[in-house]
Amino acid sequence: MTKCKLEYIWLDGYQPTQSLRSKTKIVKDFSGKVEDAEQWSFDGSSTEQAPGGSSDCLLKPVYVCPDPDRLGTGFLVMCEVLDHEGNPHRTNGRATINDNDDDFWFGFEQEYTIWNPDTQKPVGFPVEGFPGPQGPYYCSVGHGKAVGREIVEEHLELCLAAGLNVEGINAEVMMGQWEFQIFAKGAALAGDQIWMARYLLERTAEKFDMSINWHCKPVQGDWNGSGMHANFSNTLLRTCGSKEVYDAICQAFEPRIKNHIDVYGADNDQRLTGLHETQSIDKFSYGVSDRGASIRIPIVTVQNGWKGYLEDRRPASNADPYMVASAIITTVKSAKLPVGA
């Protein structure tokens, strides 16, 4: 008999940005399969998800992977939150995704800032004032440029050991700002893995007495904000070979600006200013290879005969990937396609 440690992970009810919560359950001889993870419960009155007089909320396991910090006997269990009657809780963004056949594929580019809690600034920033201006930090190497690499590298190894489909990492434009990318065939799975990677990143930063700042504009002024660019496709986008289809799908986003911005992360107006490779929050545009547009059509999609994917550059680093995917799927399905598409 082996006693296994299952770390149940869920999203709380704090607004405007939900946080991760977790607790450990000890079970015997766990198989590692999500269907063998039992439903559990927690005190929703402590997470802004239930009143004290009726505080039980339920945890429904939806994704399981090995816990790389507890190898051999540990597992991470991503959960949806249900109310006490077993219905999706109002904070459950995953339950809003309309992608039952996993036709939609998502690749999220998750930016974040390693934050020094003592200085209340990004790691590497001087206690007084600022470092040199942006330019040398993006994809950099060397002392004083690539700051925080030890946390980033350990996080990458943990994600790979957990079986997450991380496709890359890089230093970003602001000092102390980094990014990882995750791809999955299926919107819910992509969200599961982003949240799991966020959890591992927060837990890794603990070891270094650092924290992770998910805010989309952690430093005001002439510094890049942090996003979570959403690369997406479905069978139609991957196979159509038609510029007209791409135009129709992109144009479907314009009348739904508010629908998207509402779920694209708190304080995104501080980031989507029209500067620093963004479009203004109240405007919509799309274009080939245009990083200042709301939606970028990658040049590789055009070179491949209009078969590929699109990138929505508006989601903020603090957005819920479940809600982002849900909004994108709804809009793509609403597009008025050309006859014969």
UniProtKB/TrEMBL annotation:
Top-rank taxon: Bacteria
GO biological process: glutamine biosynthetic process
GO molecular function list: ATP binding; glutamine synthetase activity
Domain GS beta-grasp: 4-86
Catalytic reaction(s) noted: L-glutamate + NH4(+) + ATP = L-glutamine + ADP + phosphate + H(+)
Enzyme Commission (EC) number: 6.3.1.2
Domain GS catalytic intervals: 89-341
Keyword entries, A-Z: ATP-binding, Cytoplasm, Ligase, Nucleotide-binding
Main localization (coarse): cytoplasm
Localization per record: Cytoplasm
UniProt xrefs under SMART domains: Gln-synt_C
A Gene Ontology cellular-component term: cytoplasm
UniProt cross-references to InterPro entries, sorted A to Z: Gln_synt_N, Gln_synt_N_sf, Gln_synth/guanido_kin_cat_dom, Gln_synth_cat_dom, Gln_synth_gly_rich_site, Gln_synth_N_conserv_site, Glutamine_Synthetase
Pfam family, one: Gln-synt_N
Similarity comment: family membership: Belongs to the glutamine synthetase family.
Role noted for this protein: Catalyzes the ATP-dependent biosynthesis of glutamine from glutamate and ammonia.
Subunit structure: Homooctamer and homotetramer.
Protein name as annotated: Glutamine synthetase
Organism: Novipirellula galeiformis
Gene label: glnII
